[in-house]
């Protein structure tokens, strides 16, 4: 199937309404990721924002719990929720 056909067939951009937001974050040994998704009326999940960054040398020494908490904090800060 051609790309243009796929783009016309599926919704790419959705209007933001007061739907359910999902924030996922994860912290690895050296980096963190955060994804914001929305759920539409048909209960389909669409990603709307993505953030990732590497830890500084000081943050590399954090234990696992602090890295995970920092990933949540950084996600809210970077994605401006």
Layout of SSEs?
Elements: H1 3-9, E1 20-27, E2 31-39, E3 45-54, H2 64-79
**From the coordinates shown, what is the CATH architecture?**
Roll
Oligomer: single chain
Number of separate structural domains: 1
Helix-strand topology string: HEEEH
- Residue stretches low in confidence (pLDDT < 50, at least 5 long) are none
Please give the number of β-strands.
Answer: 3
Question: How far apart are the termini?
Answer: 37 Å
As for the CATH topology, it is Ubiquitin-like (UB roll)
Quickly describe the structure.
This protein has helices at 3-9, 64-79; strands at 20-27, 31-39, 45-54. It is an alpha+beta fold and 81 residues long. It has a three-stranded antiparallel beta sheet with strand order 1-2-3, covered by helices on one side.
What this model shows, in words?
The protein is of the alpha+beta class. The chain has a single domain (18-79), classed as Roll (Ubiquitin-like (UB roll)), CATH 3.10.20. It has two helices and three strands. The chain has a three-stranded antiparallel β-sheet with strand order 1-2-3, with helices on one face. The termini are far apart. The mean pLDDT is 83.
Based on the model shown, name its key terms.
81 residues, Ubiquitin-like (UB roll), alpha+beta, 3-stranded antiparallel sheet
């Amino acid at each position: 199937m051609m790309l243009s056909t796929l783009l016309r067939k599926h919704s790419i951009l959705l209007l933001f309404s007061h739907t359910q937001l999902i924030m996922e974050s994860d912290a690895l040994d050296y980096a963190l990721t955060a994804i914001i998704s929305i759920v539409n009326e048909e209960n389909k999940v669409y990603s709307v924002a993505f953030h990732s960054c590497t830890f500084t040398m000081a943050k590399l020494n954090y234990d696992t719990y602090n890295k995970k908490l920092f990933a949540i904090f950084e996600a809210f800060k970077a994605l401006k929720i």
